[in-house]
Known about the structure:
The protein has 337 residues and is mostly helical. The protein is built from ten helices and no strands. The protein is globular. One of its GO terms (cellular component) is mitochondrial inner membrane. InterPro entries: MCP (IPR002067), MCP_dom_sf (IPR023395), MCP_transmembrane (IPR018108), Mito_Carrier_Antiporter (IPR051508).
Amino acid sequence: MASSPPPAFFPSGTTATSSLVNNPIVTAKVSSPTKKPSAALGFLAGGIAACGAVTITNPAEVIKTRLQLQGELMRQAPGSKRIYTNSGQAFLHIAKYEGIRGLQRGLGCAYMYQIMMNGTRLGLYDPIKHTIHAALKTDPSRNNNAVNIAAGGIGGILSAALASPLFLVKTRLQSYSSHEASRVGQQHYYRHTVDALRHIYKTEGFRGIYRGVDASMMRTGAGSAVQLPLYDVVKQKMIHIGGLENGALCHGLSSLISGFFLCIVMNPFDIISTRMFNQGGSLYKSPADCLVKTIKAEGVSALYKGFTAHYLRIGPHTIFTFVFMEQVKKVFERFEK
């Protein structure tokens, strides 16, 4: 995702106590179930945890980006060879010709993007949900899928709007290859994130900095709206039907299963976002134009390029973020005592 989606381990119980205990963003003060969750705490914990996770999953994001850009607006000729044939081959190819630096390309920008994106999204999810419940005069301790979808979607759209320039730079940094024979898509060379932002602003203006923001907002809004309720449904099935305890194993399996279906929904949006961000000039006028041109030139299957790499990023990224966030939360709780 991409981007990557936030860890879906938000409150799902039917009581105030279980809801707060299951939510690592909220502190352990279960005596005040109606108290509005802290957006600042969620932002810090979510951003720090996501940075830890992206250190591990960034290579999958690099691979996904290149697979999605390969053969852009061109149908593959019968018998022709592609540079990247699948996720495993792409990993070995990049490692061989570009080394660890190639596999971790754009990592610095990815850190900044994760802080802005997942920090905002995680920090706003519970406050937005609490606000919706207050407006509807409904019980915030009871699970409500409609409210969850709305809160996830709104938080995703807002976070995408804020983090879009960093997503733009990250995409361009990850698509660039120092090995000429490995290049796919439009190539943009920048020394680092600040250099990229400065160059884009100088050559394309403020509008260039926010190129593709509409595609990014659709991508992240759809992903956030789908992931949180979907994860919760899978987790509850694991507990009540599978007999698993509400612990790390349950959370991990739920992340992997829900992540698969999330990729099905999100991958077309991800393709459009990647191409909108990486384009040179005005190849695509809008997300709709990008969608139509991609399908016309490459077929519907092009919307699922890089699907395996996308999934290999989303599942582990969610699990690692959850693990790291639990540790960050414990540190925060020590300071509150």
